[in-house]
Predict the 3D structure of the following.
Amino acid sequence: MGNFLLRRLLLLIPVLWGVATLVFLLLHFIPGDPIDLMLGDSALGADRETLRDQLGLNDPLIIQYIRYFGDLLQGDWGTSLFSKKPVFEEIMERVPATMELMFGAMVVTIGVAMPLGLIAAVNKGSWIDQGSMIFSLLGVSIPNFWLGPMLILVFSIYLDLLPVNERGGLEHLILPSLTLGTSLASILARITRSSVVETLQAEYIRTARSKGISELRILFRHALRNALIPIVTVIGLQVGVLLSGAIITEAIFDWPGLGNLLISAINSRNYPLVQGCVLFIAGSYVMVNLVIDLLYAYLDPRIRLS
Amino acid sequence: MSRPLGRIRLYFLILLSFFIIPALLAPWIAPYDIDKMDLIRQLETPSFDHWMGLDENGSDIFSRLLAGARISLYVGFWVIGISTVIGVSLGLLSGYFGGWIDIVLMRIVDVLLAFPGLLLAIALVAVLGPDINNVILALSALGWVAYARLVRGQVLSVREEEYVLAARTSGMPSWRVMFLHLLPNILPPVIVQTTFSLAGTIISESSLSFLGLGAPPGIPSWGAMLSEGRYVLWEAPHVSVFPGLAILFVVLIFNLLGDALRDYFDPKS
């Protein structure tokens, strides 16, 4: 396991370096002057020079690149243009809200997909199976930036059951979590169904049946446990979908998370903050993938020995 | 409806009749001018004259929806075209030659895949500015990766087949082996990928426009229409309902077509 961990950590270095380089280049390969982008064409010459100095844009590109990496490694992610707060601090203030939303979406995903997939698998070929798979196909095709407003329309405006916008208690989390989790729940329901169907055909299930074990016990103790491996794999792979979907969901519900911070930074042309947000989201995604890889290696010895 | 070929024909016909042809003919078949505003009749509900009602500027939603289909088709066509050409070529090179080409390419792929979903496209459009052509550029910058990985994997699995070895030992130039022998044999999964990618591209373009990063103001992209609609959700839900249904319908049919194509090419699945 130690060797596997070391190998994975070493592979991480070029990826993180590449991500950070790409984020650095974002601002430097844009057409025209980045200062124009941030302040607009009509800004005063003195303001332009101050910002240019502040961002170090007068130095040669290679010096800027070295300084950028040096600062990053020391935890200095730059300064937000308007609040004048360190970018990293501003990002960290928003992380709990995004985590809360992702956690809510994950609960929706697992809470909907597992029972749906399981019921569909047990009733394979029946109308229940067909119905759940139609739901699944619709769920994959429905854009979350439409689902969100439609949920608001039904549950907040027509039925007046749930609050809309802003973070608060559990009731504030329900609609954003449904919006973010539906697409992933649909994918997972399909995977759960096919995985359980496949497992139910295995010989050890036939053996368990011939021993007279009850169907419920076979389903939960034997089939579901073995069907879990591909299900967990898909959950791991889809963390990126949740992270990216959170940007849109936060915009719909005015949720004060990282995605909202990124979009408002883009709209106010606060590029140091844009760079910081992009770097943070991509970096977190890489780290989550590492944790998932390590988890698999721990659960399945074949992976760490390959 | 179990025969894949029958399903493929049906879904293709639906797409042709309700998406591709209306999109291409939009300027001629739209009942109203999309730029015509009627502020007195803004947010009017659907009627015989205006099947889907009027938006916050008093423009006809159905006509704008047709124009939006044209934008989705335009972006989808270019993104898939650019991504396929770049991704398939690089995947072929990487899988066929291996060595340092493969190592460098796969590291680039690793870095691009570290940006989840739309993040890189959002970042690129943020610096390039909201414009349909910038959306095409941003989505293509990431779109080729799926093709490159897919084609590379397929090439690795057929590279040692006898017909490839025969072509190589007969002295055929590498590019001919790649494009005349390898490519036709790995085409089916590429076609399936293209169908799913089209669905994904339509959602991505709409997402960027919804966030205000895609189509510039005034251009009737489906995502932008939805974004405008959410501010009048209470008084005029029809402004949001129809563009959303249009996206759902087109994406659903592309996904169904992708499923049918996969069943056709790989009956085992």
